């Protein structure tokens, strides 16, 4: 094809093309907003004399040759020593046939379930649903030709309540890889309403260092934010990760096993990444040992590893960067009773916000809700509970890993790019976590 001839003129070059339809429906209190339409985008990368050049356009009539020349000129004025690891060229077509649900149908159904979020003390609600159907094409100078069709639908439900001077909020999400019709609409709406009403009656948390039990959602957040981002090889190669130089070292309790798996059938699934590399399951931590990093072709070359298909871009207007997909803390062998075996502690459920510094390893997370644990049982409901700590300390202080498993979908942001992900794990117990 014409692309192959044009790309063959370069040491390395690739083309990405995306087309499809998407919509965003937002229902905030009594206001409804709808954005829907078709989209198209094309971009190229050229690697010349160790420097990258990138160019993109959203105009279908834009010639690929013009974009390649622009990218080549940008590479020529750059100074770098970049290179990419070799991969076997692939020629694949992956199809997921799901119909886009018209925005007006989505509005009708969302207005119906939004009523489930109304209740005592609730003064504001919002539903936001994004729905996209995309065909992605990838061509490289090495001979890869990969076409992937996929859909992503993501629902966020927010309820805000007030009692006196106390204001609380609750967020629930749902996601589907099978279009809008694949969403369970009732459950997140009801859960948001019930949680925010509970939190109005909750107590302030104690302050200090406690044994803590994390539910599967909080375990997933810890896994994604604390371990996943630190294992992304771009931050490792630039020595901006606390995991830099620690591959092969024991950094956690032997109970800890954490993976990132693009092939798993969750919200972060993809067959091939945005460099045409097959997404592979990566064992980040195996029995407490830091085993592998998440790599692009460039970082694989820098870290002396094999590319494992973790270069992703939000869309074709952005360059691929190292990203997670489905990141899980694997189940262990402990019963729920064993995990909760604390005389006095805190049970943390869900995540409402937080931050992590992958360079120092410091983090802070706020739980959606929490409970005091007394003699292994859940007692007082707590609100506004925040935990702080250090990545390496927490990994070493994990004392029990449950045999259950749960996951939560989300959209991960990095360098201004958002991509679909999912994370999760079992109930786990961590000793000596700081609660405030």
Give a concise summary.
By secondary structure, the protein is α+β, with helices and mostly antiparallel strands.
Topology (elements, then pairings):
Layout: H1 2-7, E1 12-28, E2 31-48, E3 51-57, H2 64-76, E4 91-94, H3 103-114, E5 122-140, E6 145-163, E7 166-176, H4 186-199, E8 208-214, H5 216-228, H6 233-237, E9 258-260, E10 282-286, E11 289-290, H7 297-303, E12 311-312, E13 321-322, E14 326-329, H8 336-339, E15 344-356, E16 362-374, E17 377-382, E18 386-390, H9 391-396, E19 398-401, E20 406-414, E21 417-425, E22 428-435
Parallel strand pairs: 4-6, 8-15, 14-21
Antiparallel strand pairs: 1-2, 1-5, 2-3, 5-6, 6-7, 8-22, 9-10, 9-14, 10-11, 12-13, 15-16, 16-17, 16-18, 18-22, 19-22, 20-21
Rg calc: 23 Å
What best-fitting shape do the alpha-carbon axes yield? Answer: globular
Taking pLDDT < 50 over at least 5 consecutive residues as the criterion, the unreliable ranges are none
**Helix proportion:** 10-25%
The computed structural class is: alpha+beta
Distance between the amino and carboxyl termini: 61 Å
Summed up, the helix count is 9
Count of all domains: 2
Strand percent estimate: 35-45%
Major sheet: 7 strands, mixed
Number of strands: 22
* Average residue pLDDT: 95
Task: Provide an overview of this structure.
This protein starts with a helix and ends with a strand. It has two domains: 2-199, PmbA/TldD superfamily (PmbA/TldD fold, 2-Layer Sandwich); 208-435, no CATH class. It has helices spanning 2-7, 64-76, 103-114, 186-199, 216-228, 233-237, 297-303, 336-339, 391-396; strands at 12-28, 31-48, 51-57, 91-94, 122-140, 145-163, 166-176, 208-214, 258-260, 282-286, 289-290, 311-312, 321-322, 326-329, 344-356, 362-374, 377-382, 386-390, 398-401, 406-414, 417-425, 428-435. The protein is α+β, with helices and mostly antiparallel strands and 436 residues long. The strands form four sheets. Strands 1, 2, 3, 4, 5, 6 and 7 form a seven-stranded mixed β-sheet that branches. It has a six-stranded mixed β-sheet with strand order 11-10-9-14-21-20, covered by helices on one side.
